[in-house]
Write a structure and sequence with these properties.
Blueprint lengths: L31 H11 L2 H9 L6 H11 L7 E5 L5 H9 L5 E6 L9 E5 L7 H9 L3 E6 L9 H22 E12 L6 H9 E7 L10 E9 L10
Parallel strand pairs: 1-2, 1-4, 2-3, 4-5
Antiparallel strand pairs: 5-7, 6-7
The protein binds S-adenosylmethionine.
Length: 240
């Protein structure tokens, strides 16, 4: 079972798959999109590896990939995980983070308890969200993670706007809560951070990079923005 002390190895699980492709027949009452989803899950080596190692979600491998590249977890003491359900990223934070770190995760959904993490069921977009989060955090954060995503509507433009709104809310929150030198990681969509959002990140962080971890599906337009070296309140430029 993945947890504190277990190894969060990022050996590419695709090397384990032996090229067998499971086909799923369409069944009465099942939509074509559901059949495709099922087939993809059954053939996804990251899904199999997550199950084998006890991770709650294949997305755990995305955070491992980000951390392997940018080393964001080892030294962070206070960490916020926005959109934390079912808890895959939180498992990786607990494994790789320092022993005395504090991890606070929030989500619209309930999250099964995890040793070393505290979870709150809440909506980041709610009026009192930031206040509640800051009270629970009890001090400035070193790292704000956001893997928040809306349930896909299938309408590309709508999904894009919704995801970017979540990213913006996460960045707004990060700018208020991060300690100088802190880091911010958020899920974005290709083309989504080219404008004001990216400019705000560049003004407020020493380093801003886009990164697509191996575990992020190639066909997905998802990628992650990683911003390090928060300049602090003095360097905090308004989002105007
Ligand atoms: C891709 S999942 C996160 C997976 C998680 N990183 C893991 O490894 O288990 C995206 C999550 O974002 C959450 N979410 C979407 N909008 C949100 C909001 N406004 N406030 C809090 N959570 C939100 C969803 O409920 C969903 O559980």
């Amino acid at each position: 079972m993945a947890g504190r002390g277990s190894k969060g190895g990022t050996r590419d699980p695709r090397s384990r798959s032996r090229g067998k492709h499971v086909r799923v027949k369409t069944a009465r009452g099942r939509k074509l999109s559901s059949t495709r989803w099922l087939e993809r899950q059954l053939n996804d080596p990251f899904v199999a590896e997550a199950r084998r190692l006890g991770y709650r979600a294949r997305s755990a491998f995305k955070l491992m990939g980000i951390d392997d590249k940018f080393q964001i977890l080892r030294r962070a003491r206070r960490i916020v995980d926005l959109g934390a359900a079912p808890g895959g990223w939180a498992q990786v934070v607990v494994e790789r983070g320092s022993k005395n770190m504090k991890l606070l995760g929030i989500d619209l959904q309930d999250i099964e308890p995890l040793e070393g993490a505290e979870f709150l069921k809440m909506d980041l977009l709610a009026a009192d969200a930031e206040e509640r989060l800051m009270a629970a955090l009890d001090g400035p954060a070193d790292l704000v993670l956001s893997d928040m995503a809306n349930a896909a509507t299938g309408h590309k433009q709508t999904d894009h706007l919704k995801t970017m709104a979540l990213c913006e809310a996460a960045l707004d929150f990060a700018l208020k809560v991060l300690a100088p030198g802190g880091a911010f990681v958020a899920k974005v969509l290709v083309g989504g951070t080219e404008s004001q959002l990216l400019a705000t990140m560049k003004q407020n962080f020493a380093v801003v990079r886009h990164f697509k971890p191996d575990a992020s599906r190639q066909e997905s337009s998802e990628l992650y923005v990683v911003a390090k070296g928060f300049k602090g309140a003095a360097g905090n430029k308004d989002r105007g």
